[in-house]
């Protein structure tokens, strides 16, 4: 059984009080408690003499620490946690809430160091300075870790990131926070990356933290929703001035109508963003940042859009070919709105356009607080990212993959393939089979064939 003893190692007036944890005959840990006392006030019981009010308070704190360390020692030994001097120091700091902000052996502090020094950090390829999206991802991950620390009531050190720790964190992401498989996997990937970054700055980490397994949803479990050319035409042709139709929608959806302040002008603005988005295949943020400054014409008068993608900082040039898209960009370039608002308006636009086929997809269930697979009208799944996916799914039937990658900015063909609506793609292939069969048989005339019955009659 583990034993705890408090001791002094100095005869100076303000001697440091140490805690020693003896786990076995060969394993013993020792750390400063952060408290100090005059040796003359230190009793033979290895606790302060109860002669002064301050000594009584000090005794209370030391007894709290003794209980806290023993309780956590038993739990962490059972869970396979590494028990060492860092572990003991973490117990002391956690109980008395004494984390030093500059101590980068703590996960959150190292994340803050990355964020604070973002402009001088080196990216892949040797470029200096992290881009805006990367900094945003670090900030989001830091907030998530702080929330997790609050749930487990302790600060996380790199030397605590063992396999049992990662399994508990994964369980919290999936079962407590109800995050998607992909989002949970991305957070484990981020944890692994931060641990590797810490090691580069000579912060001790666990061997397991370098091999943390991340994951994503299997292709068979992914439901990608896209708009076909026919559905895009439906959106293009829907009449928002139809007062009866709009009145019925507002009556059926009073809360959404109030939230969005739905008007024909706002719906038309969202419609134009949808049409441009499906035609140029950019991410929602890049789409909504388009201004007249992005427009350029070549010597033959063809329209180009010059963009720098926010996520990758990649400069791309797009050829705008559809006449009605050119007309929108030149004469009716929509007003910028928040991406979340565009997502909400897109559902309304698509519903009014009659895109209401029942399809499978995952939606958040407010009762269970989980994303669940079910049959829902298609318009309920449409968001700004569907525009980019629609572009890829529609164009891959006619364009070569490299041309699509030049537009989307993807660096790998495998990444482009994750945007293709494979379920609809299979239907397309089946339709092509039918067309091929019809083409082969449409001009052929049925022929009579004489079958002999084996007699001379």
From TrEMBL:
<dbReference type="InterPro" id="IPR002104">
    <property type="entry name" value="Integrase_catalytic"/>
</dbReference>
<keyword id="KW-0238">DNA-binding</keyword>
<dbReference type="InterPro" id="IPR011010">
    <property type="entry name" value="DNA_brk_join_enz"/>
</dbReference>
<dbReference type="GO" id="GO:0015074">
    <property type="term" value="P:DNA integration"/>
</dbReference>
<feature type="region of interest" description="Disordered">
    <location>
        <begin position="435"/>
        <end position="457"/>
    </location>
</feature>
<dbReference type="Pfam" id="PF13102">
    <property type="entry name" value="Phage_int_SAM_5"/>
</dbReference>
<dbReference type="InterPro" id="IPR025269">
    <property type="entry name" value="SAM-like_dom"/>
</dbReference>
<feature type="domain" description="Phage integrase SAM-like">
    <location>
        <begin position="121"/>
        <end position="203"/>
    </location>
</feature>
<dbReference type="InterPro" id="IPR013762">
    <property type="entry name" value="Integrase-like_cat_sf"/>
</dbReference>
<keyword id="KW-0233">DNA recombination</keyword>
<protein>
    <submittedName>
        <fullName>Phage integrase SAM-like domain-containing protein</fullName>
    </submittedName>
</protein>
<dbReference type="Pfam" id="PF00589">
    <property type="entry name" value="Phage_integrase"/>
</dbReference>
<dbReference type="GO" id="GO:0003677">
    <property type="term" value="F:DNA binding"/>
</dbReference>
<feature type="domain" description="Tyr recombinase">
    <location>
        <begin position="271"/>
        <end position="423"/>
    </location>
</feature>
<dbReference type="GO" id="GO:0006310">
    <property type="term" value="P:DNA recombination"/>
</dbReference>
<dbReference type="InterPro" id="IPR010998">
    <property type="entry name" value="Integrase_recombinase_N"/>
</dbReference>
């Amino acid at each position: 059984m583990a034993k705890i003893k408090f001791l002094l190692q100095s005869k100076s007036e303000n001697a440091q009080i140490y805690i020693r944890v003896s786990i076995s005959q060969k394993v013993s840990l020792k750390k400063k408690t952060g408290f100090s006392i005059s040796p003359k006030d230190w009793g033979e019981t290895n606790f302060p003499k109860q002669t002064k009010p301050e000594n009584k308070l000090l005794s209370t704190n030391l007894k709290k620490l003794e209980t806290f360390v023993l309780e956590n020692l038993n739990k962490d030994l059972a869970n396979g946690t590494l028990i060492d001097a860092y572990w003991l120091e973490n117990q002391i700091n956690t109980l008395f809430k004494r984390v030093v902000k500059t101590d980068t052996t703590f996960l959150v502090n190292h994340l803050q160091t990355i964020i604070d020094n973002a402009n001088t950090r080196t990216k892949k390829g040797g470029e200096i300075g992290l881009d805006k999206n990367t900094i945003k991802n670090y900030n989001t991950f830091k907030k998530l870790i702080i929330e997790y620390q609050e749930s487990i009531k302790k600060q996380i050190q790199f030397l605590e990131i063992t396999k049992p720790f990662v399994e508990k964190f994964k369980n919290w992401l999936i079962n407590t926070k109800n995050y998607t498989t992909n989002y949970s996997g991305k957070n484990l990937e981020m944890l692994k990356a931060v641990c590797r970054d810490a090691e580069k700055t000579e912060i001790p980490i666990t061997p397991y933290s370098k091999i943390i397994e991340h994951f994503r949803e299997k292709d068979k479990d992914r439901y990608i929703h896209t708009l076909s050319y026919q559905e895009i035409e439906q959106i293009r042709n829907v009449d928002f001035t139809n007062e009866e139709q709009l009145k019925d929608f507002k009556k059926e959806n009073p809360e959404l109508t109030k939230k969005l302040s739905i008007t024909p002008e706002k719906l038309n603005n969202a419609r134009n963003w949808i049409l441009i988005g499906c035609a140029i295949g950019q991410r929602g943020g890049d789409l909504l940042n388009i201004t007249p400054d992005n427009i350029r014409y070549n010597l033959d008068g063809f329209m180009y859009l010059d963009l720098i993608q926010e996520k990758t900082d990649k400069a791309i040039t797009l050829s705008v070919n559809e006449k009605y898209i050119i007309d929108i960009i030149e004469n009716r370039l929509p007003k910028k709105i928040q991406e979340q608002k565009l997502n909400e308006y897109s559902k309304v636009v698509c519903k009014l356009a009659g895109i209401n086929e029942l399809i499978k997809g995952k939606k958040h269930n407010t009762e269970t607080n989980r994303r669940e697979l079910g049959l829902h009208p298609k318009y309920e799944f449409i968001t700004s990212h569907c525009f980019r996916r629609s572009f890829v799914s529609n164009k891959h039937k006619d364009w070569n993959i490299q041309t699509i990658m030049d537009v989307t900015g993807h660096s790998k063909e495998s990444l482009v393939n994750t945007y293709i609506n494979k379920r609809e793609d299979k239907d397309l292939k089946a339709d092509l089979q039918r067309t091929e069969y019809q083409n082969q048989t449409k001009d052929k005339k049925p022929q009579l064939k004489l079958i002999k019955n084996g007699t001379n009659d």
